[in-house]
Structures are given as structure tokens and as C-alpha cells.
Amino acid sequence: MRKRYARSLFAVPAAVLVAVLGVTTVLAAATWTVRPGGPVSMKSGKFILTDTATGAALTCPSTTFRGKLKGGSGLPGTGIGSIRTVRSMFCPTPFGPSFTLTAGALPWHLKVSSYNATTGVVTGSLSHLQIALSGTACTAVIDGTSGTASNGTVRVRYTNSTGRLQTRTTSGNLHFYRVRGCAGLLNTGDPATIRVTLTVSPKQAITSP
Length: 209
Hints:
The chain is mainly beta. It has two helices and 19 strands.
């Protein structure tokens, strides 16, 4: 995230801005500290996949993600963590057909980029995403720039106090590709969003510096 105040006030330190002006600064971070790091399990709430061109949405029950975070201090934000396994999601619908979502191109890569010390909220992204959707009359691939690129990206935020990692539905690049069937509810090239909250265990403290 851009430095909202540093450019206009040049060399004034962020801590001075907070103390003197009473503002909250959210700054791009150079290095990071993660405690404790190591293997993590992430339990999801509902996983909601939406075609934002048609408004069609698929809601899937809770599933489990597993990954790993680097531990220690002085860490770069890029490659600070990963999601290595995702249990396939069986997604019923009220109108009959059910669907399965299967994660591909694992591991997915976690990058952190900015930190709000006042709220304890970290922002960043998950990349290298690819998800296969399959049903009896509808199949598709969710990815970034093509159905085989394995470069899907979503923005995320992590809250230290709750240990929750949430996807955001803006600034991602997900689209539907290789759509077969689907009755016009999904179409190749349509933009896609993912909405899910993951509870990280053990809870991590991710701060900068």
C-alpha cells in the first residue's frame, strides 16, 4: 500500500506523524517478524466462489487448508508462507446438481506487503492459484490469465488478534476458463472472486519490523 503521508511530509518519521498529527499510517514494510512460524492448519468458514459478470455464486461448506510460515525476524515479505494442501470441497446446491472444487498448482504462495501497527492488520496476497470446478453438467477452471497459467492472485488480510486470514474480493485477477456446460451461469473469460475466512492454528503474530 502506498505511503499515504510520507510523500507529502518527506522525511518526517512515521512514529512522529502518529504522535504529533494523531493519524494512523499504513506503510509498505521492508522486513517482517513472524512468531512462531512453522506448520499451520487453517479451518475455513464458507467458501464462496462468484462469477461477477453473471452474479452466479457457489457456496461450499467448511474445509481445511494446511501450510507453512517462515518464523523469525528480518524476513522478506515475498515467500513468507505457503498453502500446501487444500481438502477438496463438495458443494451442494438447492436445485439438485452438486459441484466439487479442487485446488491445483499447489503450493499457493503468501506474500505480505503492508502492516498497520494500530490495528495489527497485515495485508498481502495469495498467488499461484488454480481451482478446478466439476459437476455433472458444468466444468471450469479458475485461474489468472489463462486456464493453464497457474497465476491466479487474490488479495488477503491477516488480523493478529483473531488469527484470521481473509480473502478480499477486489484487486485480484481470477477468471473462469475452459467452461463447459454451466447454462450460461459461468462463461469463459468472466471475472471470478473468492470469499473465505481462514482461522489459522496455531495463531501467528505477523508484524513489521
